[in-house]
């Protein structure tokens, strides 16, 4: 066995559903479930609904704490959305959880017509966003942001880590109207506490400055962008990272202010297809304002993705830390 092979042991099938946390990275278990349990103590109108996925979206913690406010709808996502809309019309604040593919692709018409058209106060919190599972196109929500961004009045959130999720839960509850939030579940990395960060709905946050590259990112790609910035610093490449947890409404003012600085390569990094996500939203904002930096995008391809172990897939599709660093150095050459 070669040295290279010894350093990278063959991944087992279980790695297909492994945590996105790197080895040795700090994590918090079930930040969404814990934050919702805490919030519900003060908000009796909050109810929790799921489509047979309480354990796998961390909503089981809410069900244990408030069994009389927890509703298991079975494997019927369209019913889940319709019931959530009906409960919202009766004055409740439903937090409905499922996997992102089921909450967007399978139940789209019910989200659009039952919830969004009437601007109902439903919070959709959907796990396995983008490429965070290796189970192939049936479970990989590579296009969820494109779908929900297109719904009028829908607020769209893509949190980076456990801190983002903990702070986003009360923030989306305070917002009156439908919200779609991508959900990280299980042992979720903790990153943003090192950057004096506080989640604010509709606001982008500059986490670190840099003169050579501006990385604009959301979700787990913000975590990756911070890792890339540290890695490229060793090569004397100065990388700024702008975290955009709210995809809609987009913080156009902050994005334009940062992208307008001359001499920097602007790269949007997202765990989503190149079609219809943060990259296209930023590009539209820049062109509309007449701002034209050198612009690139790191994202998933417009394709049905492979099944396999997540580390392998992230390398294959260019969203791992190493792959991102190599791509950016190529663009700077």
Order of helices and strands: HEHEHEHEHHEHEHEEEEHEEHEHEHH
Poorly predicted tracts of residues = 1-6, 11-16
How many distinct domains?
2
SS field, number of helical segments: 13
InterPro entries: PDH/Transketolase, THDP-binding, Transketo_C/PFOR_II, Transketolase-like_Pyr-bd, Transketolase_C
Family: Belongs to the transketolase family.
Keywords: Thiamine pyrophosphate
Cofactor: thiamine diphosphate
Question: Concise description?
Answer:
Belongs to the transketolase family. The chain has 333 residues and is an alpha/beta fold. The chain contains 13 helices and 14 strands.
Describe how the helices and strands are arranged.
Elements: H1 3-7, E1 27-29, H2 31-42, E2 46-50, H3 60-65, E3 70-72, H4 77-89, E4 93-99, H5 100-106, H6 108-116, E5 123-127, H7 144-149, E6 155-157, H8 162-174, E7 179-183, E8 187-189, E9 205-208, E10 213-217, H9 220-233, E11 239-243, E12 246-248, H10 252-259, E13 265-273, H11 278-289, E14 295-300, H12 310-316, H13 321-332
Structure description:
Helix 2 packs parallel to helix 8 (162-174), helix 4 runs parallel beside helix 6 and helix 10 packs across helix 11 (278-289). The chain folds into two domains: 27-189, Thiamin diphosphate (ThDP)-binding fold, Pyr/PP domains (Rossmann fold); 202-332, Rossmann fold, CATH 3.40.50.920. The chain has 333 residues and is α/β, with parallel strands linked by helices. It has helices at 3-7, 31-42, 60-65, 77-89, 100-106, 108-116, 144-149, 162-174, 220-233, 252-259, 278-289, 310-316, 321-332; strands at residues 27-29, 46-50, 70-72, 93-99, 123-127, 155-157, 179-183, 187-189, 205-208, 213-217, 239-243, 246-248, 265-273, 295-300. The longest helix is centred in the C-terminal third of the chain and has 14 residues, at 220-233. The chain contains 13 helices and 14 strands. Strands 3-2-4-5-7-6-12 form a seven-stranded mixed sheet, sandwiched between helices.
